[in-house]
Amino acid sequence: MVTKHQIKLIKSLTQKKYRQQLGLFAVEGIKGIEEFLNSDFKLQNLYTTQPIFDAPKQLVTDISEAELKKISSLKNPNTALAVFNIPKAKDIDREELIIALDDVRDPGNLGTIIRLCDWYGVKDLVCSANTVDCYNPKVVQATMGSLTRVNITYLNLEEFISATNTDVFGTFMNGENIYKTELPSTGIVVLGNEANGISDSIKVKVDRQLTIPQYGESKNTESLNVANATAIVLSEFRRRLIEK
Amino acid sequence: MVTKHQIKLIKSLTQKKYRQQLGLFAVEGIKGIEEFLNSDFKLQNLYTTQPIFDAPKQLVTDISEAELKKISSLKNPNTALAVFNIPKAKDIDREELIIALDDVRDPGNLGTIIRLCDWYGVKDLVCSANTVDCYNPKVVQATMGSLTRVNITYLNLEEFISATNTDVFGTFMNGENIYKTELPSTGIVVLGNEANGISDSIKVKVDRQLTIPQYGESKNTESLNVANATAIVLSEFRRRLIEK
């Protein structure tokens, strides 16, 4: 059974303010919860309609389908909801390839960018303070567990870039053709906001402007979606590793 | 002024059934509407709070902000809503690179895939009958006008592939490393459903299974988002063009 107090607490976790106050966030669905249970994340409570999880008994609450509906933020809740502690971000490894997000606002975009980092072995994702929170339920859902394997740090992006002695890359309309240029295995790659791209204060800190060239006759496409641009840029950086 | 009858008609266009019955769909926002006005698409009606569009006067209705809210499917409506005719799909050019979607269900994914086709000069996108409708308002919104430059045909994907004499590519977990293999400038590239990938009946028709390799230690990422996979695959096909 789930108490009124618990329902209120869990529902409050859809808001960033309460996630930060409480240091907690929610994960829904069997696969996602299993990924977090098998990671370093610390379980606080697991509410489930089926006794299928490998979790400490004192943290598990059996609930009904109707109760699950009350606590879920999904249209079609799936079996269980778990509350985990938000971990402290680990130290950033500045000797590796780092992805930096400059005010990415869409939860779906952030979620799929986290999956891309995981796929391409990028350990550190750094985000400007105005980037959407990675513990937002829509982000957690979209990451499909990759959130457990990528170290995400929210920080002042300008200060971070200034304090890090490495190449800084960004995507622009008139930069070097990304297919033809040499790319190193380390550096910071900045991706910008969905509507405005990379902000001026960050742009001046970019050492190398890269461009994904357009093909075909029209060349009218305004821009690529930021997650798709991240996919192509990461693909190009990592492709160089096997060609060496 | 917008009549009750018009409000009912416009609101009905959020449903595929009515879009198909009426042969109409809606576009919202200044930029999107301008792209459609500058294309082959035929305008039916334009409802606007500002007289800023280059459109035949008899098709333009001035409305208030309150009226715009009544007809819009957006949380924050932007200036105008236009109703256009759904055009007949043009003939498919089988001598070019074709993207084929096998039951892609998410409107955001289809929208960004249409943008990718436009960016990379892919003229024909073919979709299985169960792929989300490209005139769904969320798809139209996500395409940012690219819908006017990509020819989209809904068809029986099995029959289309069988009837087309070209290489058929698909992405799988254990295929050829896409970075190392030769890729032609023509062919059909199949991308699968978000949850289930490429269906068995299509899989048997794929001549060349491609794999986007994972990097890093974990290699636990289950899969890439289908739009991101499309981005990487298209990037690889088009990269070969400049290297020749």
UniProtKB/TrEMBL annotation, chains A, B:
It holds the Pfam family SpoU_methylase. The keyword Nucleotidyltransferase does not apply. InterPro entries: Alpha/beta_knot_MTases, MRM3-like_sub_bind, Ribosomal_eL30-like_sf, rRNA_Methyltransferase, SpoU_MeTrfase, tRNA_m1G_MTases_N. Residues 97-234 form the tRNA/rRNA methyltransferase SpoU type domain. GO terms for molecular function: RNA binding; RNA methyltransferase activity. Keywords: Methyltransferase, Transferase. Residues 5-82 form the MRM3-like substrate binding domain. One of its GO terms (biological process) is methylation. The keyword Oxidoreductase does not apply. Transmembrane segments: none annotated. Gene3D superfamilies: 3.30.1330.30, 3.40.1280.10. Belongs to the class IV-like SAM-binding methyltransferase superfamily. RNA methyltransferase TrmH family. This is RNA methyltransferase. It comes from Winogradskyella ouciana.
